Amino acid sequence: MTAYFANEITKREEQAAIVSYETEQLAVLPLGTEIIEREVEALVPIAVGDTWSQVLQEQEIIIKDDIIIEIRTR
């Protein structure tokens, strides 16, 4: 049981160190810097007459405070 708690303490100390490092890094970034949190794949509807090169272009969805504020093509 002691080993279990020691392992949990170690994991939580590592998580706290990661959060501390990320917080320090955020302080260095200029205001307005975009951060990629994660990428997702999605199904894209297509129809006869669509331009294939436009369908293949990757899109970025910009989210701020859990609200989609912009969709742009890379």
Features:
74 residues, alpha+beta, two-stranded antiparallel sheet, 2 helices, 2 strands, elongated
Please, could you describe this protein's structure?
The protein is α+β, with helices and mostly antiparallel strands and 74 residues long. Helix content is 43%, strand content 18%. It is built from 2 helices and 2 strands. A two-stranded antiparallel ribbon has the order 1-2. The protein is elongated and about 65 Å long. The model has no long low-confidence stretch (mean pLDDT 88).
Topology, please?
Elements: H1 2-28, H2 52-56, E1 59-64, E2 67-73
Antiparallel strand pairs: 1-2
Describe, in short, the structure shown.
The chain has 74 residues and is an alpha+beta fold. The chain has helices at 2-28, 52-56; strands at residues 59-64, 67-73.
Give, in spatial order, the strands making up the sheet with the most strands: 1-2
Mind telling me the C-alpha Rg? 21 Å
Number of DSSP helices? 2
Mean pLDDT: 88
Outline the biggest β-sheet: 2 strands, antiparallel
Low-confidence stretches: none
Helix content: 40-55%
The succession of helices and strands, N to C, reads HHEE
The count of DSSP E runs of length 2 or more, i.e. the number of strands, is 2
Shape: elongated
- Content of β-strand: 15-25%
Structure classification: alpha+beta
**What is the distance, rounded to the nearest whole angstrom, between the alpha carbons of the first and last residues?**
52 Å
